[in-house]
Amino acid sequence: MSLAKVKTGIRYAMLALISALMVFPFIWMFLISIKPKNEIYSGSILPSAFHFENYLRVFTDTKMLLYLWNSIYVSLIIIAFQIITAIFAAYVFTVMRKKWVQFCFVLILATYMLPSAVTYIPSFILLSKVNLLDTHTGYILSEFISIFAIFFLRQSFMQVPKDVIDAAKLDGAGHLRLIFTVYIPYCKNAIASLVLITFIYSYNNYMWPSLLIKSEENMFVTIGLRRLFMSQAGYGMDFPLAMAACAISLLPMLILLAMASKRIIHSMANLYVNK
Amino acid sequence: MSSITLKSLTKQYTEDKSTLDHISLEIKDKEFLVLLGPSGCGKSTLLRMIAGIEEITQGEVYIGDAYVNEVEPKDRGVAMVFQNYALYPHMTVFENMAYGLKIKKVKRAEREKRIKAAAEMLQIDSLLKRYPSQLSGGQKQRVAIGRAIVKEPKVFLMDEPLSNLDAKLRNEMRIEIKKLHERLDSTFIYVTHDQVEAVTLGDRIAIMAEGKFRQIGTPLEIIECPVDMFVASFISSPPINYVDAVLVNQQGRAFVDIDGVRVETSMPIDVVENHPRVVAGIRPEHCFITDETSNTFAMEVLFTEIIGTDVLLHLTYKGSDFIVKKSFTKTYEKGQKLYVGLDASNVNVFDKNTQKNVRSLS
Ligand SMILES: Nc1ncnc2c1ncn2[C@@H]1O[C@H](COP(=O)(O)OP(=O)(O)OP(=O)(O)O)[C@@H](O)[C@H]1O
Ligand SMILES: [Mg+2]
Fold it and tell me: Whose CA is nearest to atom 7 of ligand 1?
């Protein structure tokens, strides 16, 4: 066996080990979700009987379906707004090399350095002034623009070769046409990654929505899951039910990942691998 | 009317250095101007400024009679073939060529007709559905030319458009570009490194160095009378031979004397008086091999290089290289002694200090 083969072997073994570590909590979650309640602390890994009805109970006994719907549709709206605003902002910051424009960019980036917790109180006061507390509109408004998205897209817009842009200008493309027929198609992989990142962030977001959203019918999955744990604390946790709910809450992300994984790998390779 | 006038055009990328330094030039309507110069002398920068995609630091550009400094690139009526192709990577070859036409609202049928004609001419009609990443360098280059052709612009700017083609295709394309120029009534500015291209295509050639024009003239003018040693070297391929010489006045006639070998030149006699010590530039094709031992140079063969039907004899003369080009009719051995004679009328002489052609100094 050659040295190269040994090296590849070691590399694969490492990757397999790390993957196993990553996947293990999810498998554990799934196993608990189908165990009978009394086997949770038994220490055996496989359940004695499979209780898939826990998954049905998530929909009948809890409001998970409503939470899921809230999370998904609000996240989708946020993605749309964040990406559209980021595309235009990134375009300006890529194309206009004037000093004051670049200064604005630095200023915007600087606000990204602020810990988000610092913004909770002023945002809360602002939203209360316009009567948007405990509404989806209020939440969407506060997540309308993502500085990370602007930064991320600017980085990938800068990769578009200057000559290609110049060629398009010579061909007669104006700003909008440049954006839609050159920048966006050129950066489609980066945008796909951004969609996924934005979705995960927004879907996972817990702290800020938990401050903002109070009423049951407006709740998101993250807050809902927490309520599921809290509400039963008194009578001994229904862990299998909670784990089934967790598993279901993962589904949208897994679906999205499956759809976009190819492009994401592509864009990561483009970002970090020197060609 | 699509003449181009540059008035004192200057480009500074950084404060302290001028990439283009007060360049002035008039290019006539329908003229084919070739820009020739070493890498980094500012050829691409000049084209980009004419196209309007590079900011002008100072000076004026006119296309026709219009002052275009402030005119958008798309409204200047120019098409450019970029040095590195600059194809749209996410569009097929066909879409690449159609992009500009769509924006100009050219009708679909007309679009397809033009693209088909250009693709046939450039021998890329079988590639129309491919993406640029699936093309070779030479194919990309032809697509880039095609994208410019279909726009039927008033002014063509071509930045080394044939540099990536093989010899045969390059010859074919050169002829196609020549035909294109005759057919289209457009003004061409064409950047190249290739002397053959420059001489065969150009109505005039502008030789650049370090952001300035050294000489602008017809191919004949530049070949016959290069203004300095830089131009003479640049336009000559294979490289020109330089040997120290003296000018002598022999009974009122001007002679170049190279180590006793004398050839007469048509130089005014006062130049001879003013520039006794010079460098003679002898082009490899203006020498001949002879059995005559008087008024010739004795040289030794270093090696030979066969180029098609010609042969380049690399010789040594007084320790430095000397190249003679002749048709390939005979083989020569390394170390063989030869006698080299000069064609009288074709010797240019340069001042030893200033490197300028003494004829232009008179
Ligand atoms: N964007 C830029 N910023 C700073 N300097 C630049 C820029 N573009 C070109 N230059 C400099 O300007 C000079 C001329 O560049 P240009 O591309 O016009 O050369 P060129 O004559 O086309 O050379 P080549 O034959 O290699 O293509 C070079 O010294 C180059 O380094
Ligand atoms: Mg160049």
Answer: B13
Query: pLDDT at position B53, please?
Result: 92
Question: pLDDT value at position B121?
Answer: 87
DSSP string, B179-230: HHHHHH--EEEEEES-HHHHHHH-SEEEEEETTEEEEEE-HHHHHHS-SBHH
Confidence of residue A233 (pLDDT cuts 50, 70, 90): low
Q: How many alpha carbons lie under 13 Å from residue B208 in its C-beta half-sphere?
A: 30
- The Cα A152–Cα A140 span in angstroms is 21
Nearest to B86 by CA among B143, B124, B37: B143
> Which among B19, B82, B234 is the best mutation to test ligand 1's pocket, defined by most ligand atoms within 8 Å of the CB?
B19
The verdict on the CB of residue B144 being under 6 Å from ligand 1 is: no
pLDDT > 50? residue A275:
no
* Burial (Cβ within 10 Å: 0-12, 13-18, ≥19) of residue B89: middle
> What is the reported pLDDT for B99?
95
Report yes or no: B245 and B349 within 8 Å, Cβ to Cβ: yes
Our CA-based measurement puts residue B50 at a distance from the nearest CA of chain A, in whole angstroms, of 11
* CATH class assigned to A53-272: mainly alpha
pLDDT in tens, B310-339: 999 999 998 889 999 999 888 888 888 999
Nearest Cα residue to atom 29 of ligand 1:
B40
Sign of CA dihedral A68, A69, A70, A74: positive
B13 lines ligand 1 (CB under 6 A): yes
Mean pLDDT (chain B) is: 90
ipTM of the complex, rounded to two decimals: 0.83
Q: Are B80 and B222 in contact (CB under 8 A)?
A: no
Q: Are B72 and B52 in contact (CB under 8 A)?
A: yes
C-beta separation of A190 from A270 below 8 A: yes
The closest of B34, B3, B49 to B177, measured between CA atoms, is: B34
pLDDT band (50, 70, 90) for residue A274? very low
User: Is the model's pLDDT at A267 over the cut of 80?
Assistant: no
Domains annotated for chain B, with CATH where assigned, are 4-233 (3.40.50.300), 237-361 (2.40.50.140)
What confidence tens digit (pLDDT) does each residue in B216-255 have? 999 999 988 899 999 999 888 888 999 999 988 888 888 8
Domain ranges in chain A are 53-272
Buried b (16+ CB within 10 A) or exposed e, A112-133: eeeeeeeeeeebbeebeeeebb
User: What type of residue sits at position B282?
Assistant: I
CB contact under 8 A, A166 and B82: yes
Pairing relationship of beta strands B155-159 and B78-81 according to DSSP bridges = parallel
Quick: pLDDT tens for A214-230: 888 888 888 888 888 77
Mutate to test the interface with B, among A169, A171, A175, A188 (most CBs of B within 10 A): A171
Closest to B118 (Cα-Cα) out of B147, B95, B89: B147
Q: Give the Cα separation of B137 and B260 in Å (integer).
A: 52
